Every structure is written in C-alpha cells, then in structure tokens.
Amino acid sequence: MDYSHVRDVDPAVADALSGEDERQRNTLAMIASENHVSRAVLEAQGSTLTNKYAEGYPGSRYYAGCEYADEVENLAIDRAKELWGAEYVNVQPHSGTQANMGVYLAMLEPGDKILSLELSHGGHLSHGHPANFTGQLYDVEQYKVDPETGYIDYESLEQKAEEFDPDIIVSGYSAYPRAVEWERIQDVADDADAYHLADIAHITGLVAAGVHPSPVGVADFVTGSTHKTIRAGRGGIIMSSEEHADALDKAVFPGGQGGPLMHNIAGKAVGFREALRPEFEEYAERTVANAKALAETFEAEGLEVVSGGTDNHLVLVDLRPSNPDTTGKDVESALEDAGIVLNANTVPGETRSAFNPSGIRAGTPALTTRGFDEEATREVGELIVRVIDNYDDDAVVSEVADRVQELCDDHPLYEE
Ligand SMILES: *Cc1c(COP(=O)(O)O)cnc(C)c1O
C-alpha cells in the first residue's frame, strides 16, 4: 500500500501501517473471525465519505448534502436484501455488538430476560456477559453445549426456557463449529412466547452463499458482522421483517449511535456486490471444505476436535486429552512465532481460566481468501500439530516458520 500522504505528516503511523501490511502478508491469519477484504473495499473505506455526516436514513437525513450518502446506503441495503433475502435491513451498526444493541434497545426494557449460550461454551460478550452492557442492563440466564458431544444441548435450552420465561432467546455463536438448528430454537422461543435473535456474526458469508442454513425468515431478528466470513469490512448489520422496521431504525439511530460511518457503509456495499458474484459461493464452499480438511488432519494427528469435526469455517481443539500440560496460550504464542496467528479459546467443560484456556480455535476464511485449497490447508494443519507437540522447542518452531514463509509467498496478498 502507498501511505505517502501519511508518511509526510506522521512517519510513526506510516511505519506501523506498513508493518501491519507486511505482517498480514507474511503470516497466516487463522483467527476464525478475521479475513482479508479486497482492494476495492479498502478503497471505498478510505473514501471522502468519512467526512460526511448523514444522521437519519436515506431520504430523511438531519443534514444537507446527503445525495451520495443516500445512494451508497441504498445500494448496501438493496444488496443485503438480495444476499440474505431479508425484508428489512439496517446497515448502520458500527459493529456486530452495536447490531445486537439495536435489537435489544428496540425490543427490551432494562430488567427484561435474555436466555443465551454461555461465553465459555461459544457464546459472545454481547449476549449477556457481566462485563458487557447486556449483563448489566438485563436479567440473563444461559444454556450450554453438551460437554460429551460439543453440540448445543437443545433439551436443556428447552427446559431453561420453561423455567426462566425469557423475553428473548439468543442463538448464533463465536466458537461453535456445527450447523445451528434455527427452527428448533424458534420452536422453543414460540413456546416461551419470546423473541428469537439469531446472531450470525461468524457465518454471515456462509449463510449468504447457502452453505449454512439461514435463520432469515425463521428468527424474528438476525444480526451479523460484515468482516468475518463475508469480506465487506468491519461493521454490523440487522435483518428482520418489515414489522419491526421503525423500532429497529430508531434503536440504531438515535437510540444507540449518532452519525453512521458512511465510508464503512460504502465498504459494505462494495463487499456485498462482490459476494453476489457466483465466485463467492465457491469461496464459501471452499472455506468449509478447508475447515473440514483441517479438522480431519488434527484428528488424524491425535488431537481432540470438539464435536468431532466441523460444519462451518472453524475448528475448536481441546488440548487436554492429547497435551494435558500444554495450555491454549502456550500454543497461541509458539504458533505466532511460527507465523500462524490463531487464538487460545475456552472449550466446553473448561478447567483452566478464560485468559489461559485449554483449547485453540482455528478458522479458514482468510486462508481461503488467499487461495489455499484442501491440500495446502492440510499441510498447515500438520505444521500446527508440530508446533503444539514442540511448543517450547525453538528449533522446531523456527523450521515451521520457514515453511510458513514459503506458503505465504506462494499465496500472495494485495500484490496485484
Ligand atoms: C464477532 C461476533 C460479534 C460481533 O463482534 P464485533 O466485534 O462487535 O463486531 C457478535 N456476535 C458474535 C456471536 C460474534 O462472534
């Protein structure tokens, strides 16, 4: 990238930006929530729309001069409607958390009841964690995955819903490798007379491409992020039926946000346009095929894969059976030295702390963007296992790092 204007005024930031470009080029991004957007999306995000105030919605803004802001936001909305088949779309949330906030603000009063998956079982902070506004404003009860199978424990969800009588049930997760049975959760919500929010932050792109079942038209509300399995830049999105349009619009602005980030909304419009192309379906299919190849490699090498595999873009490994004395942070840190960037993660039945948990989470969206196929992904899986088994052996880590560098060079990023 050319940061010549930044360099003129601020060499320190220019150095950090160039450093980050190099870091992304020369490492493998396997944090399951990360991806690489196209240059087109980067350009849109770096546009002069960052200068524009556009409080309100297309056609009814609080400021003059919104002609092009309206055009861009309408394009983002129309394309999202086409991608996910939703009646109503709001593209203004600054992030996935802000999208969830929009739904809660629209539908709940402080003190109302949320039933959601526990964070250590794959849930998200914005689903009711005590450190998040959701845990502070609402009454929260949580369901779990079955510790034996790693699948959502739908029966205990049903039982909890009966006992707790929630106002809203939240589905959709951060570290769950299996397909979610939306209808089953919808039935529970119907029986409990509760709303159902399906937060598809991680799988937004997989759902758009039809490689994961869609909750749109099933759940009352669907929220997502626009930067994980879809490459539309950092941000959030809300989908629903027309019935809730007014309440949701008001909850996002002025309820929880001020002026929309119009440059990011331009990035969303461009990223959605890219996702409407037939190649995106191939991309999503390959992302899942690569994750399956990764899970198979881990299992073949003796690691415990939570739930025994994956239906989506991520693999969760419980290190305890194969490497009882090795923590997720040991592995995360040695892998970073080897040029493979993923994260330590809690696993169902966690016996360590959230900060130094017993598992790792690995995702394939970014590798797949770089053109990795199943064979190359299997090799990455083998390299990861070598580092897990030798995390404190500098010679092995350095050998793996050399091979990772070759793989990065073979799959260039932002070079065209
Ligand atoms: C990533 C994620 C979000 C959104 O997070 P932001 O960082 O706020 O964009 C929301 N819900 C789930 C389940 C997630 O995994």
UniProtKB/TrEMBL annotation:
A GO molecular-function descriptor: glycine hydroxymethyltransferase activity
Pathway entry: One-carbon metabolism; tetrahydrofolate interconversion; Amino-acid biosynthesis; glycine biosynthesis; glycine from L-serine: step 1/1
Keywords: Amino-acid biosynthesis, Cytoplasm, Methyltransferase, One-carbon metabolism, Pyridoxal phosphate, Transferase
Reaction(s) catalysed (UniProt annotation): (6R)-5,10-methylene-5,6,7,8-tetrahydrofolate + glycine + H2O = (6S)-5,6,7,8-tetrahydrofolate + L-serine
Residues annotated to bind (6S)-5,6,7,8-tetrahydrofolate: 119, 123-125, 242, 353-355
Pfam families found in the cross-reference section: SHMT (PF00464)
PROSITE patterns tied to this protein: SHMT (PS00096)
NCBIfam families: PRK00011.1
Protein name (database record): Serine hydroxymethyltransferase
Species this chain originates from: Halopelagius inordinatus
